[in-house]
Each structure stands twice: as C-alpha cells, then as structure tokens.
Specification:
mainly beta, Jelly Rolls, Immunoglobulin-like, TIM Barrel, 5 domains, 8-stranded parallel beta barrel, 6-stranded antiparallel beta sheet, 49 strands, 14% helix, globular
C-alpha cells in the first residue's frame, strides 16, 4: 500500500513541475440524449432551435417563442490529463446544470447565463481507463425566461489543467488609474492560489517587476504592481487599440505558470454638467439593447456569430450595446474590444418578485453573489465595458425593500471592481415615478426605460443625477436624439432593440385588419409569431430604414443619404401598429397594382436640400433641417421605373423590379477556418434579370452543403414562418433569406447549392 501512495505522490509532483495552466476547447465528441433519442453533437448546441416552434402550445410560451425546452443529457469520454488540477469550465448552460464525473456529482450551476467552473480532479480515474463526464440540463420548469433562452450547452466548454500552485482563474486584473501628460500608469493585480498541502514561496513577474509571494496551503494571495506606458494609444470606439500584459509565476527559478491579458488604456468621466467624456472628448451614446440569441442559430454562441452580431451593430452606427438582460459571452466582449463598441454589462432581468413562475426569483438569494462575481470577474479587463447593470424593470420597484436589494447587488460588484459605475433600468407604467428617488440614489447612472420625458423635472429635483435612457421605442429616434444632444445630464439613448430576436413573440409587429389584434402580451400571446420584430436590423442582417435614419441622426456631420418608401396603407391591408412598431418601410419601388395611387417616399439626410426625380422628371424639391427631423417626405402617384434622390452632390436610386430570374448568393467571407467552429453567412436574394431584388418574391428553396462544410441554418426574417431555422428548406420573404455554413474538420471546398423554381444557385467556399 505504501508503495502505491509513493508512486501516486511522485506522479503528481512530476505533473506539477512540468505543466503550466492550459485551456483546451472541449466542444467536440459529445452525445446528446433528449426525449429518448441519442445523437452525436459538437458544441455549441441548442436543442430547441433544431425543432419547430409549437405555436400557441410550446412550453416556453409567447415569451420563449413557443419552443418546448425540457430536459437533456450530454456525455463525453476523455483521458485523465497529466496535471495537478483538472477543471471543466462552462461558458453557459441553459439551465440548472449538474455535472457528473464517472458517476459522481462534481458540481452544479443554476443560472443559465453565467459561466461556472467545476474542479473534477478528485473524481478522475488514476489509471488509463477513460473518464466520462455527464451534464444533466433541466430546462423543463417553464416559463422561466421572458425571451428565447434556448436549451442545452449553448456556449463553449473548456478543459483546464494547472499545477497545484498557479495563477487563479481570472486572477490577473489590469487597470489604468492614471492617464495624463503623455503617459499611463498601469496597475496589475495578480492572485496566486495554492491547492497543495504545504506553504509555497513563489515570484510573480510582470515585465521587469518581480514580487515575492508566500501562499499558505489551500489559500490564495494577491500582489499588486504598476508600470508606465509612455505616449499610450488610447482605446476608443474609433481607435480600439489593445495592449497585452504578460504575467509569470516562478518557483525555484522555473516558470510554473503564466497568463497573458489583453486590455485597453482609456479614461472616462460622467457628470451632469459635462456628460460622458471618453479620453477627454465628449461622446453622445447611441446605444442598442441586444439579446443573447444569434437569430437563425438560436442560442448557439459560435465565436463567429458573436463577432458578426457586434459588427452588424457597429456598421449600423451604434457605439454602445446593452447586454439585455443577462451576461453575454467572452467572444462577444472580445469583439467589442477589438471592433470598438462600448458595453453596459447586465446581470439580471428581475430580482425577488417573479415575472415568470420559474425565473431568477427562485434562486436569487442562494446565488446572486456567485453570479455577479462570475460576470464581473470574467469581464473586468475588457475596456469596452463602461458600466455594470444590476437589473431591469424589477417588479418590486414600489416596495422600499427594493433599495436594500439594489445595495446588495451593487456591493457584490464592488467586491471585484470599483472602477466602473453601476446602473439599473427603472420604469413606471403608471403615474408613480418620483417615489423611486431612493432607488436612484443607489445608482451611479440612472437608467430610464421609456421614461426620459421625465428628465427635466428630475434634473430640477436632483441636479447631480446622470441619466441614460436604457430602453426607448424605435419610432422615437428623433426625439431621443434631440434630448441627448441638448441636455448634457442625459448621456445617451439605448433603443429597444438593435437586432430582431427570438422570443417575446410579436413585439414590434405590425399587422393587418383581420389578423389577431393587440400587443404581444395579451392573453394567449401571439401564437403565429415566434420572435420580436423591433430591431433596427433583422435576423438576416438586413438594415431596416429606421437603422439608416438613426445612424444619420447620431453622426455629427453625416454624409449619409438614404431613401425608402412607406408601404401604402391598404396595399396588403389596413396597417395596424403596436408599441414598438415602425411603420413598414422598404427599399422598394415595386408596388404592383398601386399605379396612380399616392405613395410616400422618405429621404434621410443632413444636407439642406433634397431633389426627387421619377424617370428623369423632377418631382419636387424639399428643404431639410432639424425642424423637418432631417427628413424630406414626398407624396406622389406611384409609377414604375426609377426613383432618384439627390442631395449635396450625392444620389441614391430605387428601381422597379421585373420578374424573378435567379438567386444571388453573397457570402460574408470567401474563406473559413477548418475545425468545426467557423461560420460563413450567405445572403440569398431573389433578383430580376438586371440584378434588382424582387421584394415580393416568395420562392420555395432547398439547400445542400457538401465537402468541407455543413449546413447549419437556412431561414428568413419572417417570424411567422414555423419551419425550423436549421432546416434545409425555406421560402424567401421580401425576396431574401440567410444561409449559414459551418466548417467541419477537413480542409478543402464547401460546395453550396440551392434548388428552386429558378435556376440552381451554387457557391464554393474555401476551408483552410
């Protein structure tokens, strides 16, 4: 027996001396069991999106998009790594995950939106037998979320190995407390953990600085150092420059662990007199609320999908994203860092009083601190994050005890990070508002959901309060821009939403006489819908006209010129609007059957004058200024042909489309990375013989992908289409669809083809 233990001890010591911390993607090679069926899957995986929404009956209800959710199990085998400590890190599992190793429970986690790590070392086989990890997912308690959550291990999993003495997970915190006079002081805090049975002495090395640290057995110690960067490049949305700080942990002269952290150098202030000032420059915040789903992919958080989401918002002119109403992914924040996007990082939707029967109110008291720490500890080094948000429209807002809860949550943030302000989104659906002043006192910046019309009286009552509108109606774009532009104590407007999203079915819908009346929240919901159409950008990536209008407003000296046409009331039916609706407006001059009838054309610009031509003939000239809300609106009888607007030496045209002639395929990139994690988004358009999009074309299509790729999704922006978005079949809507190709393990060519009543369309994508 003694020989056995001596051998094991020698084995562990060898591991510790030879292995630094490593993190390996653990996404491939799982089996998934649900409803009695077992399949092979590679993560990220969301089992809901592979099914059809069960309209009016799905367990998640109108909020969740009518999907069924339920329970599922994931299994994978793996060999025991040679390391002192072995952990599994889950970026997100929805929800109520239990983790078992070789039949023994190793850990659990309730909240579906925060990352968690499980130490699996004690449960691993010490011989050469393979280990089995089992992850049980329970999303059967429904409804638990007010929007589409997805179900399963929808974010990455990582296998982490490290020596017994190591730099802690998220154990490097880099800040820039002083930035002035051509130099920046960088402060680095490093936490060292000792999981061994003996006190350990080590050295932490940051650049040329060395710090001795003594760590007792099974404890941790933090050390701090500073260094200076001369003439630093400051991080901003216009110049998202990133630095890297490298940290080493040495023992006995040998490096036993190391970590590198990317960070930015930037400084910001906010106050009621000067507004929001970034790196000494006043910035007006034009923000977008964005839910966590990736549209046609459901909740599957591929890095490429998260990067694309940020890029779409950047291209739409936004400079801030609010992660409504939950922590986002590491990849999303990495993209915000590198592309240049400010972020409000939000923890929760609700607190102790339920919005849904099985929401966070059922677990807040047991894990709010753990979940806030998971968000803040992971995200603290991202220069994009300028504020933490603790909640959204909490139901108990009229109960004075809500102030105590707000203080608890803020305190949990400050235990990790005190370098950023804390905010929260407050609202009122009645006349009560001033009663929330004690609640606002907890917050560094007050979040106003649809309530910024209260700004003047609030400012008079509390002149020091800094405000931003954390949600606003899309159609109020001009009014909200004007408030932020005119009043420095209102530092930004954040529209609901930047992107269309799954769930909250029917929000933003317009409808016609004869269709189900009312808002999304009426009794029974909107069974025909499984998503929210309130985004500036739809789920295929098409920018609606309101997106171009908003970008033009917020650009200080915008050269933008854009033209769109309002759908005539009665063209399809009498149009009815709901709260988040923008009147249906399209990049179209194709209105068959409307000849001779009046139609409205909108031109958006900050140029002083716009001329409109139809088939070469001047229709009219309009003056444009703030009084016209930077719009030129023309009413004219519809006549097919070419519509052209001119302003400031620029012109834009819309042409009447002919009959559908072919499918045009436009990939967002020509080359994918092999390995199974990269994606190519292919825009599918129905065009006429001249290349004009046919905006009324509804063409049934079926796609296939062969070779070095696989079809992941094929769908339109029509939230009334109940075909599974991961199906190879779709009928184009407004002449468009979106197809997503996932790379596989092999390099070579992915060959895409789409069959329809039109000629077969084909595309080849390289995978390297």
């Amino acid at each position: 027996m003694m020989k056995f233990f001596t051998t094991i001890l020698a084995f562990l010591l060898t591991i510790e001396l030879s292995a630094q911390s490593r993190q390996t993607l653990f996404d491939d090679g799982w089996t998934f069991t649900h409803d009695g069926k077992t399949i092979s899957v590679n993560l990220p995986h969301d089992w809901d999106i592979y099914t059809q929404p069960n309209s009016g009956k799905g367990a998640t209800g109108t909020g969740g998009g009518w999907y069924e959710a339920g329970k599922g199990e994931y299994r994978k085998q793996f060999s025991t790594p040679q390391a002192g400590i072995v952990k599994l890190h889950f970026e997100g599992v929805y929800q109520k995950a239990e983790v078992f190793i070789n039949g023994q429970k190793a850990g659990q986690h309730g909240y579906g939106y925060t990352p968690f790590t499980v130490d699996v070392t004690p449960y691993l086989n010490k011989d050469k037998q393979p280990n089995e990890v089992l992850v049980k997912v329970n999303n059967a308690e429904q409804p638990n979320c007010r929007w589409y959550s997805g179900s399963g291990i929808y974010r990455h999993v990582w296998l982490q190995t490290m020596p017994l003495l190591h730099i802690a997970e998220n154990g490097v915190f880099v800040t820039t407390p002083e930035v002035a006079d051509g130099k920046a002081m960088v402060q680095v805090k490093v936490t060292v953990e000792n999981a061994s049975d003996q006190q350990r002495n080590a050295t932490v090395v940051v650049g040329s600085r060395q710090m001795m640290v003594t760590v007792p057995a099974h404890e941790s110690k933090e050390v701090t150092t500073t260094y200076t960067i001369t003439n630093p490049q400051l991080w901003s949305p216009e110049h998202p420059y990133l630095y890297t700080t490298h940290v080493e942990l040495k023992e006995g002269g040998a490096t036993i662990d190391s970590k590198s952290v990317k960070h930015g150098v930037r400084t910001f202030t906010y106050d009621a007199e000067n507004g929001f000032v970034l790196n000494g420059k006043n910035v007006l915040i034009n923000g977008a609320c964005v839910h966590h789903d990736d549209g046609v992919l459901g909740a599957m958080a591929f890095d490429a999908a998260e990067i694309r989401k940020v890029r779409l918002m950047k291209e739409a002119g936004f400079n801030l994203i609010r992660t409504s109403h939950n922590p986002t992914t590491r990849a999303f924040l990495d993209a915000c860092d590198s592309l240049g996007m400010l972020v409000i990082d939000e923890a929760f939707d609700g607190w102790r009083t339920q919005k849904n029967p099985y929401d966070y109110s059922t677990m807040i008291d047991s894990c709010y601190r753990e979940d806030i720490h998971a968000m803040v500890d992971r995200d603290k080094n991202h220069p994009c994050v300028i504020s933490w948000s603790i909640g959204n429209e909490v139901i108990e807002r009229k109960d004075i005890r809500v102030v105590y809860t707000a203080r608890q949550l803020k305190a949990a943030i400050l235990e990790i990070d005190n370098t950023r302000p804390v905010t929260e989104a407050l609202c009122a659906w009645d006349r009560d508002w001033e009663i929330y002043d004690p609640h606002f006192e907890v917050l560094d910046i007050g979040g106003y959901n649809y309530m910024i019309h209260k700004h003047a009286s609030d400012h008079q009552r509390d002149p020091k309060r800094v405000m931003w509108q954390t949600e606003s109606y899309p159609r109020d774009a001009f009014r909200n821009w004007a408030v932020v532009n005119d009043f420095p104590y209102v530092i930004g407007d954040i529209v609901w939403t930047g992107l269309d999203y799954l769930g909250e079915s029917g929000i933003g819908r317009y409808y016609y006489t004869g269709e189900r009346e009312g808002e999304s929240w009426i009794e029974g919901g909107q069974p025909e819908w499984h998503g929210a159409y309130c985004g500036d950008v739809d789920i295929t990536g098409w920018r609606k006209p309101i997106s171009h209008y908003r970008e033009m407003l917020w650009s200080a000296s915008s050269p933008l010129l854009y033209m769109a046409v309002k759908e005539p009331n009665g063209y399809i039916g009498e149009i009815k609007q709901t709260s988040w609706t923008v009147w249906p407006t399209w990049e179209s001059w194709t209105w068959k059957g409307w000849e001779g009838k009046p139609i409205e054309v909108e031109v958006y610009t900050k140029q002083p004058e716009v001329k409109l031509y139809l088939n070469g003939q001047l229709v009219g000239t309009k003056q444009v200024n703030r009084a016209t809300e930077f719009k030129a609106v023309f009413t004219l009888p519809y006549q097919p042909g070419e519509l052209r607007a001119e302003a400031g030496g620029q012109s834009v045209t819309l042409s009447t489309a002919g009959e559908p002639a072919r499918l045009r395929l436009t990939p967002d990139k020509q080359v994918m990375q092999s390995g199974g994690q990269d994606l190519t988004y292919v825009t599918v358009e129905v065009v006429d013989s001249k290349g004009n999009v046919c905006p009324e074309a509804a063409i049934a299509c079926e796609a296939s992908v062969k070779g070095a790729g696989q079809l992941l999704a094929f769908a339109t922006a029509d939230f009334k289409d109940t075909e599974a978005t991961t199906s190879p079949r779709v009928t184009t809507w407004k002449g468009r669809a979106l197809l997503v190709v996932r790379s596989n393990k092999t390099k070579g060519k992915a060959q895409l083809s789409i069959k329809s009543a039109l000629p077969t369309a084909a595309l080849t994508i390289q995978s390297r």
